[in-house]
Amino acid sequence: MLDFHYTVETYKSLEETMQDLEANLKNESFGVLWTFNIKEKLEEKGFSLEDPFFVLEVCNPREAERVIKENKLVGYFLPCKIVVYKDNGVTKIGMPKPTALISMLDNNELKEMAKDIENRLIHCIEKTI
User: Fold this and answer.
1) Which domains, from first to last, does the chain contain?
2) What gap in Å lies between CA 88 and CA 51, rounded to an integer?
3) Whole-prediction pTM value?
4) Strand 5-10 versus strand 31-37 pairing type
5) How far is CA 108 from CA 50, 63, 68, 105, in A?
6) What tens digit of pLDDT does each residue of 7-30 get?
7) Is the dihedral of CA 9, 15, 16, 21 positive or negative?
8) What count of Cα atoms within 13 Å lies in the side-chain half-sphere of residue 26?
């Protein structure tokens, strides 16, 4: 079965990881549309997480246009998400694999596009660690 995610560890601080990741994404023409601090939001609502947990919503406009023109249902998977969080003192970076999401649609063209996007996002993550 296809793993739905790609996750790695880094010994960089959370802050350094976030800065480096954003720079690496920018170099690949992916912008961070929004950074969601889940720990902070839960605390506002009276709940708590022990460790920081961030969700970055990232998008490459050219790729978004291509995949939505191919099949509007792909818009359900956009923007791409990358998470950065602490787990037992270790910073982790991960994402749901675009290929795993796209595999739900039977379209070989989309599968090729998803593989390219996935490889580029993995490259950004690997450059960050």
Assistant:
1) 5-128 (3.30.310.70)
2) 8
3) 0.93
4) unpaired
5) 42, 16, 14, 9
6) 999 999 999 999 999 999 999 999
7) positive
8) 7
